[in-house]
Design a protein that fits this description.
This protein has helices spanning about 1-30, 90-95, 100; strands at about 60-65, 75-80, 90, 115, 115-120, 125-130, 135, 140-150, 160-165, 170-175, 180-185, 190-195, 205-210, 215-220. It is α+β, with helices and mostly antiparallel strands. Strand 9 (about 160-165) and strand 10 (about 170-175) form a beta hairpin. Bound molecules: zinc ion. Zinc ion binds near residues 72, 74, 121, 123 and 126.
């Protein structure tokens, strides 16, 4: 009996508190709202800052056409590759807005990493790392040119996937006896190939792209 009583008491109290609650809430909501802050006196309309009219840029595209040795200024450069380059990888999209357009593998467009490439000057032997430069407007094509890289069948190292770079940017991997198609947006182009570790194979392929044109590159452990 005693036990039940105390239980009842408890539940009654609980009911009372519950019943009291809505009232309290009602009271609260009935309280007059704090007077709204008087609207800030509108300042006299400021004239819109005049935006300088920027010249229409065709976009930012990587280019190594103007790349020179930082020591002697010569253009006689050998590509060593991405292996051992000390610079940090950067996200390509931020630096070159259009980089995704030239990268063949659509999966890599989103998180595309742009790696510095190590070069050696053949004139003074200086080694240096650099990202591509940005193509000047007169270096940019009106219509991009299609590039087809043909990796011809070779028994040597046939299982190894090679990395193809256009103007210092990796555009894709190519397996033995297969093609890799990509676009170039610049007139002067340099292509080089590395192994899967980023060590460049000797030789570069340079070509001048035509608006809307097509360039076929044949490669069999070297440019043919
Ligand atoms: Zn040099």
């Amino acid at each position: 009996m005693e036990y039940n009583k105390s239980l009842n008491q408890e539940s009654t109290m609980e009911l009372m508190t519950r019943a009291a609650q809505p009232q309290a809430m009602q009271e609260q909501s009935l309280q007059p709202q704090a007077p709204a802050e008087p609207e800030a006196v509108q300042a006299a309309p400021q004239p819109e800052p005049v935006q300088p009219v920027e010249p229409q840029s065709k976009g930012q595209y990587p280019s190594v056409a103007a790349l020179v040795c930082p020591s002697c200024g010569q253009k006689n450069l050998r590509v060593i590759g991405t292996k051992g380059a000390m610079g940090k990888a950067v996200l390509g999209a931020g630096m070159f807005g259009a980089i995704g357009n030239m990268v063949a593998d659509s999966r890599s467009k989103e998180n595309f990493e742009l790696l510095p490439v190590k070069y050696q000057c053949l004139s003074c032997k200086t080694k240096f790392d650099t990202l591509p430069l940005t193509a000047t407007d007169d270096e940019v094509l009106d219509v991009p040119c299609t590039v087809v890289f043909h990796r011809l069948s070779s028994a040597v190292g046939m299982a190894v996937s090679q990395q193809v770079f256009l103007n210092g940017v990796k555009v894709g991997n190519v397996k033995n006896n297969s093609d890799l198609e990509f676009l170039t947006f610049t007139k002067n182009n340099t292509v080089f190939v590395t192994d899967q570790y980023g060590v460049a194979f000797p030789g570069t392929y340079t070509f001048v792209a035509q608006n809307g044109g097509r360039e076929d590159i044949n490669y069999k452990r070297k440019f043919l």
